[in-house]
Structures are given as C-alpha cells and as structure tokens.
C-alpha cells in the first residue's frame, strides 16, 4: 500500500518537481535538502535556510581561493625546486664531461708511455743478451788463451829438460851402453808425447817429443860426449824455445788486444744499460703516476655519475610529486565547483519557487525519508 501511494505521488508531481529531484539525486544535494527539511521541522524561518546556503556558497568560494593560493605557492615552489635540481644535475653532468675529457687525454698518454717502456725494455733485453754473448765469448777466448799458455809452458819445460840433458856432459845416461838410463830418457819423451796428444791447440808438440824419444833410442850406441849431434840437439832446443817464446808473446799480445776490445765493447754496453735502466725507471714512475691519476679520475667519474643518477631520480620524484599534487588539486577543485554550483542552483530554485520547494520537502518528509536515504521522487523505494 505504501509503495502504491508513493508511486501515485511521484507521478502526480513528476513534472512539477523535476528540478528538485535532480538535487535529491546528488549526495551533497540530498544533504542540503535534508538540512532544509530539518529547518522546516523546527519551525525556523525559510530565510534562515537561504542565509545558510549563501554562507555555504561563500565558504566554498573562500575555501577554493585559499586552495588556489596554496596550490599556486606549492607549484611555484615545485618549479623552483625542479629548477634547482636540474641546475645541480647540469653541474654534475658538466663535471662528468670534464673528467671524461681528462681521461681521454690521460689514457692515450699512458698507452704512449707504455709503448716507450716496452720498446726500451726490448732494447734492454737485447743489449743484455749481446753483453752476455760478449762475456761468454770473452770467457771462451780467455780459456783458450790460458790453454795455449799452459801448452807453451809445458813444451818449454820439456824442451828445457832435453836441453839440460844433452848440454850437461856429466849426465850418466850419456855414457855409452847405459841402457837403463837411456830407457828412462825414452820413457820421459814418450810420456811427454802422450801428454802433448791431449793438447787442444799445439798438437804438433807430440811429434816433436817423439823425435826426441827416437834420438834417445839411437843415442845409446853412440858416444855423445864426443859427438857433434849433441850440439845439434842443444841448438835445436834453443831454436824451439825461441819459437815457443815468440809464439807465446804473439798470443799474449793478441790476448791483450782481445781484452782491450772486450773492455771497450763491454763499457759501451754498460753505458747503454745504465741509460736504459734510467729511462725505464723514469717511464715506470711516469706510468705509475698516470695510473694513479687515471684511477682517481675514474673513481671521481663513478662518484659523479652516481650522484648525477641520484639527482636525476630526485628531480623525477619531485616532478612526480608536483604532478600528483596538481592532479589532486584539479580533482578537488572540480568537485568543489560542482558543490558550489549545486548550492547556487538550490538557492536560485528555492528563491524562485519557495512554495513548490517547500511542498516537495514536505512530501519528501511524509514519505518517511527524512535523510533522503531511501526516498526517490520517481519511486524505486528501497523497502516495501
């Protein structure tokens, strides 16, 4: 029965109350209608409602003005903050460019110095090899010379022994048919010949000593004390000793010449190595210094890049906050403007049609929907 009555009332006043129904469909409008209905139920003058509505409209306008002012201040601060952040980012980026420019100079210079070092070091290795070869050659020459001297000295000793044997008339082996003594002489020469076969240079001495052994073998049947052969042997020994002495002198002279040449060449190599070591030490220090500078610059570059990324992120975050604030401000402004327009429309409608408005509110109250939660002017109640 209640539903039927409501439907009949709604149909009867549908055209008359269309503009009021629009207010009641809005949540804020319904709240305002509820306020009017409450004013009417207390018996206060209708003008009081108009005053309340106008004060509300003024309050909404003032609130919006304050919000506009706060938003302008906030957006101006945003603009200033972002400008500062962007300037700081630009300064950081300019510094990274400067550091990279320094690295672009240092790294090629470091490569150039390394190339110089490698070349000098290769030269040093080659020089050291040449010096080692020279020293080895000198050691070989010295060993060969010492061997020659040793062979000359041995030959000199043997020949001098022969000369003493044949120049001393009192030697018992010179006696005729003293076979045991002559055998010792032969054995001595044969042993000397065998030793001379081991010579590395003067192997001809072995043949010479064999000749002396043959002479000793044949001499035991002769009277050497009265034989001219003795003088020939002594003279031969003197000749051989002179030749050995001359040969040794030549070898000594040649050895001295080789030694002087060695010392000269070694001195040149030593000078080169000293110069190379000094150059390498300087290059090593230069490369180490460049490495330290490059590491410092790379460390600074990494630091500035990190700071730049952080500053850009800060700028983006600040920009996002400002955009979000502007978006929320716009939404709030639109909602507030809708409320203000609704209040203004209600004031206008009520002022122009107070009787119809009052009748609409009265019917609304009779329908039992004082707060407008269930009442619909067009019907559609939410309860039976």
TrEMBL record:
Record flagged with keyword Coiled coil: yes
Residue ranges the record marks as coiled coil: 46-95, 280-314
Keywords from the named record: Coiled coil
The protein, known as: Uncharacterized protein
